[in-house]
Structures are given as C-alpha cells and as structure tokens.
Amino acid sequence: MRTASRHTPPFDVGSLAADLAPLREKIASMIRASIIDGRIGAGEKLREPVLSKQLGVSRTPLREALLQLDSEGFVEMTPRRGAVVRPLSKQDAAETYEVKGALEALAARLACERMDGETLKRLTDINATIASLGRARTVDRALILQQNAEFHQMLTDASGNEKLSQYVRVLRAQALRYNYIYLTVTSRLGESVAEHAGILDALRRRKADEVERLVREHGISASRALCSYIEQPPATTTRRRQRSTS
Question: Which of 69, 95, 108, 155 allows an S-S link to 74, with CB 3.0 to 4.6 Å?
Fold first, then answer.
C-alpha cells in the first residue's frame, strides 16, 4: 500500500496556485483523483501535517477539503483517527451502482426529451473513440475509463437538471475507484460499446421509455460484472486483469 508520507507525494501540484477554483475544491480534487486511481489506497490514513506540507497549503483549507471528501464518501473523518480513505467492498460497490443506475436512468429519460443534435453527435463520437481504443494493440485503460465517464456524464448533463448531474458526478467518481482496480469497463468493453450504441439509437428515435430502460440495464450489467470480479480470488482476478489488457 502506498502511503501519503512517502518521499514522492501522490499529487500533481504544479497548477495548484494557477487554478481559479476555490482552494478547498482544488485540494479535494487532487486527493480525490489520487484515491480514484489507487495512488492513495483504501484504509490509508491521510495525515494532515504531511498533506499540508506536500501540497504547500495551510491546515484550514485542507481540513475543509477532507470534510468535503467525507461528505462525498471518499474518506471517513473520525475524532481520534482523523481522515481515512474509505474501504472498498462488494456491498459498497453494489449500493453505489444501484443508486447511480437509478439516477442515470432518470437523467437519460429527461435527456431524451431535451437532447440536441450536437450533443447526440458528441456522444456518438465518444462511443466510437472507446471502440477504437479497445481495438488498439496496446489498451490505454485510463483513457478508456475517462472516455466512458465522459459519455455517461454528458448524457446525464443533457437532462438539464443540475442537481441530478451533481449527484451522479459524485457517484460516478466513487465508481471509478472500482473500475481502476477491477478493470470492469475494459474487461467488458465490447458489450459496453454495444449497449451505448443501443442507447444512442433510442435517443435518436426519441423513445424515452426505451432509453430509460436501456440505461438502467446497462448499469445493472456493469454492477454484476464488477461484483463478480470482486468475488474472484486474488490470483484469478490478476490473471483476468492481465488478459483484459493484453
């Protein structure tokens, strides 16, 4: 397990001062990204003095950022232990995907009524990019995950409901932790691309009921694949990861 106190910190702080976002948001974004891609592991304690020094920030905005991450479900803040990265589990994954899937299905239904041609084309292009990345000799897992997240978030944002988009954004970030570790997106890439294509076709035909159903089923399929991977013994899971990227 990597620790936040190592010599090389798990953060890219080069643009910290230049970014116009509130300092709390910038700090939270950096820590969140490091949790999502595994540079900071589940169960790891986030020591405020160490983080403050690594990031070059005072303890006040750092504490605010950790409290924000606690509210988002990435860390647990306790009086004596401080901030600890929340553990991963099959139950947590299933609950995250269940709620995320329901909200994304609702968002897709709303998006079907409000979708414009330009957004639909961008979604189609993203799905084509994902398919192309999957056919490459060397699979860029991080880019596939990024493109997949962009596809779903763009579809959710097309709902026009900002509150709904915010909730899904947090849940999708939590789900990315599992995707990075278990590679469930890249391991079922062909099925995912085909399911995206079906959703896009229903969007073109303005079939709101069908869009909602397909997005919900897409989420259920992803959840089942993820939970199946979590249940695998470590050696089996490792072999599957290697095959999915070969």
Answer: 69
